[in-house]
Hints:
By secondary structure, the chain is mainly α. The protein contains 13 helices and no strands. Helix 3 (59-73) runs antiparallel to helix 4, helix 7 packs parallel to helix 9 and helix 12 packs antiparallel against helix 13 (230-252).
Amino acid sequence: MYSDLQYKCFAAVMLFAASALAGDENQLERSKSDIVVEGMSHPPQSVVTVQELSHHVPVKARKEMEKAEKARAGKLADEAITHYKQVILIDPEYVAARNNLAVIYLSRSNAKLALEQLEEAIKIDPRNPALFTNLTIAYHALHQLHDAERTARMAIDLDRAGTEPPMLLGMVLAEQRKFTEEALRCFRWSVANYPVAHLFAANILMTQGNLRDAKSEIESYLASSQQENREMAVKWLAEVTTQEAQSSATSTR
Length: 253
């Protein structure tokens, strides 16, 4: 069951965390993903890089970008890909176009093509945390967990206020069975934006034998407004409660 939670959450975080950068200087409207992670808002990018501020987008590239974003919002992925590629041909340093193209590739489970675009984008704008966040997702999709952990840490270093990177780092650590205090901190940091992080934290606490705090995390999740994983949480709560009772009975003998 935990592996199901891991997969569902990572897939959903992918489609939100890898959402588009601002399309151009006019701050194009960002489209929402079809998949809604529980408790997931879509916070604006909290860091604007020097490259974004200084880069001048040619008018022709901007117009193509508008067409690409419109197609993406209309779920016309093939059309969007065509327009994003045209943008990049006109303006190879248009980081948002490379990022958004990578997002579509990720949503189509084509992480290798996404990786190519993100690596090129990072050469242009090496201090953009959104790119490292998306690179983490691409590496995870390719089962390169060591690289995913490294890039998640880089995303956190570049944007201490970011919401997605700590959640992604926690999930990558947990998938490597690194049930550490660091992973626990990542999930606890993330609960305001991702209530499901309570369950990831509970899993670590159960592994550590801390049933009381694990129970508290599960109850916090069940008290949240997001209940996508309610069945799993109720099952975990019953198991933890039973283990607590058994432990208490043993200690009183």
